[in-house]
Amino acid sequence: MVSPLYDQHGRPLEYLRLAVTDRCNLRCFYCMPEEGIKYMPKHELLSYEEMLRLTGLLATLGVRKVRLTGGEPFVRRDLVPFMERLAQLPGIDDISLTTNGVLTAPHVPALARLGVKAVNLSLDTLDRARFASITRRDELPKVMETFYALLDAGIQVKINAVVMDGQNIDDLVPLADLSRALPVDVRFIEEMPFNGGSHEAGPASLPWNHVRIRQHLEAHFGELTPVPMPAGATASDYSIAGHQGRVGIIAAYSRTFCGTCNRLRLTAEGGIKTCLYDQGVLDVRALLRGGKDDEQIVAALAAAFRFRAANGFEAERQRPLHQLSFESMATIGG
C-alpha cells in the first residue's frame, strides 16, 4: 500500500496534471498571441514512454488521479493508445482530460471504453461569432458535437469558461443555463495573468473576480446554494433550484483554494511545477535522459513536492524578476 506523501503544509500528493503537448489548434487571445507561440522541438518534449515512467513513479508517491492537458491533447498523435497504457499503471484509478473539443468527438467512444470519468471542455461562449473572435478559429460546431457526444456516452462533462471583461460577459447566463436541462457542471474561471502578461496590481484589480461572478449569476438565477466539495477541489460548486446540473466558480487568480491543493503539474518538456504560479521547480527530463535510476528520480520528485510554496502568492513572489511576466497557458499545461 502506498504511503501518501505530504508537503510541509500538510497537503497530500494525489493528483497529476500531465501536459502531453504544448501545441494547440486554437489561438484563444487570453492564452497565446495570434501568431501562436514558439513550440518546443519534438525531441525536447517528453516521449510517451517517459511520461509513463514518471507517472508510474509518481503513483508510488500517492498520485492516483491523472488529468491530461496541453496545449490541446488531441493534437498529439496516438493519444488514445497512450491513455490505454496509462490506465494500466498500478495505482492510477482516475483518468480524465481537458480539451477544447475541436478534434475530440471521433474519440469519445474510445474514451468511454477506457473508463474516462470526466472531461473538462473549454468553452467560453455559445455564440459562434464570439467564439471565432475569442479563439481566432470558427470551430464552435465541432465543439458542440463533442459536447453532445460526451453526454450521450455517459461521460461527466464540465465546461470551463474564462470570464473576460468586455468579451463574454453576455455569455455567462446562457452558459449557466445549460445546467438547467442537462447534467453538466458549468464552471466560470477568473482570468489569469498569462500569455506574457503581468497583473502587478493583484487580484483586487480584476474586474470580474469570483465574488462578482457569483453576484452576476444570482441576479439572474436567484440564490446559489453551495455544494460540499472534497479537499483539493479548485471550484466552488453551487446548485440552482430546478437545474439538473451545477455551476461552479474557480478563483484562479484570487487563489482561494490553495490551502488544500493536492496536485502538481508536469509540462510537456518535462518540467515539474508544484504551483501554477511558480517558475518550475524540477527538470525531470534532465533526470530521465541523464541516466538517473528510479530511486533517484523518486527522491527528487518527493523533495520537490515536500517543499512547496504555501499558496500561489508566495510562489509568484519567489519567481525571478525576469520571469514576472507569465508564459502562455499552453506551455504550462492548464
TrEMBL record:
Q: Report the pathway entry.
A: Cofactor biosynthesis; molybdopterin biosynthesis
PROSITE patterns registered for this protein in UniProt: MOAA_NIFB_PQQE, RADICAL_SAM
Q: Which residue ranges traverse the bilayer?
A: none
Which UniProt keyword terms apply here? Answer: 4Fe-4S, GTP-binding, Iron, Iron-sulfur, Lyase, Metal-binding, Molybdenum cofactor biosynthesis, Nucleotide-binding, S-adenosyl-L-methionine
Q: Which residues bind GTP?
A: 17, 67, 98, 158, 263-265
**Signal sequence range:** none
Share an example GO biological-process annotation for this protein.
Answer: Mo-molybdopterin cofactor biosynthetic process
Q: Which EC class is the enzyme in?
A: lyase
Keyword 4Fe-4S set for record: yes
Pfam families noted in UniProt:
Mob_synth_C, Radical_SAM
**Cofactor binding mode and count:** Binds 2 [4Fe-4S] clusters. Binds 1 [4Fe-4S] cluster coordinated with 3 cysteines and an exchangeable S-adenosyl-L-methionine and 1 [4Fe-4S] cluster coordinated with 3 cysteines and the GTP-derived substrate.
Q: Cofactor(s) for this protein?
A: [4Fe-4S] cluster
Task: Identify the residues that the record assigns to the Radical SAM core domain, covering every copy.
Answer: 8-226
Report residues binding [4Fe-4S] cluster 1. 24, 28, 31
HAMAP family reported for this sequence: MoaA_B
**What's this protein's family per the entry?**
Belongs to the radical SAM superfamily. MoaA family.
Checking NCBIfam families in the record gives:
moaA (TIGR02666)
Record protein name field: GTP 3',8-cyclase
Q: Which organism is it from?
A: Hymenobacter sedentarius
Which gene name does the record give? Answer: moaA
